[in-house]
Amino acid sequence: MEKFVNRDRKHHFYKVLLEEDQTRMRIPETFYPRMSREAQSSEWAVVQGLGGAHWVTKVNKTQDGIYLEEGWEVFVQENGLQMYDYLVFRYHGCMQFSVKVFTMSGGIPQKECLAPVRASPLSEERDESDEDDEDVAPANGIVRRFAYRPGSRFFSVTVQPSYLKCNYLPIPWGVRREHFHDGLKKVKIVNSDASDTRAWRIKILRLQKDMRLSRGVADFANKKNGLNLKVGDVCHFKIVKKRSHELVLQVQVFRD
Fold it and tell me: What region holds the TF-B3 domain (predicted)?
């Protein structure tokens, strides 16, 4: 039982909803080690969507991978999901997932799903422990601590202990290649919550093989002046304005 609990730790993975995902959803193969053998052999999974409602889906394990099938299409329809919506999955153990949904405009849908809460047939046992150094397994099969899709204005960074200790946030290679040109010196970060009028201006640090948000991250991350970031928080950024000397990023933070 201890081995089962230790392997069923909380993790995230990301998925852009495509046509083939409307009726069934494939769990990224790189995510399988995060699930115990008992969980992978389960016949059912529970997905929590908008408004806190739960949907039970059938798990189908094939040669191509592990899929959420029967019940997934209902989840998609009743939550009003559309093509290219950006889904952030959080795994809670025992084949139980919660999902945050970003629309193409970058926000979370404001409507709440009115579908009834459906009881889970699975065990309530789950692991509440945290890891010191959590990786992210995005749907493209690459294990990393940040996620970005080419051509997108969105990218995500999962906060690691070293980021808080050294006061920096890494910039994914894809997004810096497409949006962070050589003359860019800083970014301005604003909260996706319009009621929060604060803004953080952060300088860009260019290294030989890396690029980071550096000076100013301490204020952005701390409790007094910033968003009180913790290890495991997922910062989802949207590029809302591009200037010759500055990018404006909108941020939304996901946490337990």
Answer: 10-105
